[in-house]
Amino acid sequence: MLSNILLFIFVTSIDTVKIVFTNDIIGQFGEKGATFINPVFPPPLGGAASFYTYLKKERKKFPDLLLFDTGNMTGGYVSGQDVDIEKTAEFYKLMGYNAMVPGWREFFKGGEGILYLKKHGVTLLGANVVKKGDTTQYFEGIIPFKIFNIKGIKIGVFGLTTEKMPLFANDWWIKNILFKREIPTARQMVKLLRKKGVDIVVLLSAMGVSREKTLADSVNGIDFIFGGFMGYGMREPYENYYTHTVLLRQYRYFSSAMELSIFYDKKERCITGYKAKQITLMEEDYEPDPVIKRKFN
């Protein structure tokens, strides 16, 4: 009897934090074919409508599920014309995102686009996105981090946009914006969040895969990096040998989402494990919600 009680106490000290994230959707919210499975007869992917069905199901099991995006959600042309920033804000709100890092494409309409997203309820995390004339001030509409309390577990989330933005952006997009160096900013954020008593540190990255791996190797204290921007998707998580930071990335154009379960021991105050899973948004698996389907197809 005593052993059963002790086993029960041990088991219930482990809680699960469920996080889902997307990256590089690039305005592809509607249905399309999964040509990576069959280029001739591609099975249908449900896009936003199937994603909504998946989220509704998961939130029944995990009401405090966290949902993030790592940038480049916005569609449109590189010229900055016909950029559908409005669709980005609408999708973000309907899916119930908690935060996103602004990627390259979120700057297609310059500072006005960033302010539009902020005005319409989008939480933008950009710890290295500051005012050009005063680097102690974050650019309007952007905050450096946010702390979420899930079952008594504090998750600190911060964002980094590529410091190489001037190489990719038209001058007018970022005329009043400076992108600080990624690694020093990450170190500052980790130190600050740990001082605030955060249990799990998550980075939303719009830096690109090579820079994310460099940062994972160079900065101690980041538990998970959700990657985005330049580079390839990854079928399996990458865990740095020295820092044990875990990097996760998926494929662009919204064929899937990434689901992460973090197992946390509240008694010992430590992560005991994690499980990552790619969620391919097949219509066969996740019947498209008809209301969402009409909005985005």
Helix amount, in percent? 25-40%
How many DSSP-defined strands?
A: 17
Q: Could you spell the SSE succession in H and E letters? A: HEEEHEHEHEEEEEHEHEHEEEEEH
Task: Give the class from helix and strand content and strand pairing.
Answer: alpha/beta
Q: Number of helical runs? A: 8
Fraction in beta strands: 25-35%
What name is given to the CATH topology? Purple Acid Phosphatase, chain A, domain 2
- Whole-number average pLDDT? 92
Low-confidence spans:
1-10
Radius of gyration: 19 Å
Describe the global form: globular
User: What is the H level of CATH, i.e. the homologous superfamily?
Assistant: Metallo-dependent phosphatases
What is the CATH architecture annotation?
4-Layer Sandwich
CATH class: Alpha Beta
Sheet with the most strands: spatial strand order: 9-10-12-13-15-14
Structural domains: how many = 1
N-end to C-end Cα span: 58 Å
Give a quick account of the main beta sheet: strands, pairing sense, barrel closure. Answer: 6 strands, mixed
Written description of the protein model:
- With 297 residues, this protein is an alpha/beta fold.
- The chain has one domain (16-296): Purple Acid Phosphatase, chain A, domain 2 (4-Layer Sandwich), CATH 3.60.21.
- Helix content is 28%, strand content 27%.
- The chain contains eight helices and 17 strands.
- The strands form five sheets. A six-stranded mixed sheet has the order 9-10-12-13-15-14, covered by helices on one side. A five-stranded mixed sheet has the order 5-4-1-16-17. The chain has a two-stranded antiparallel ribbon with strand order 2-3.
- Helix 3 links the parallel strand 4 and strand 5.
- The longest helix has 15 residues, at 47-61.
- The model is unreliable at 1-10 (pLDDT under 50).
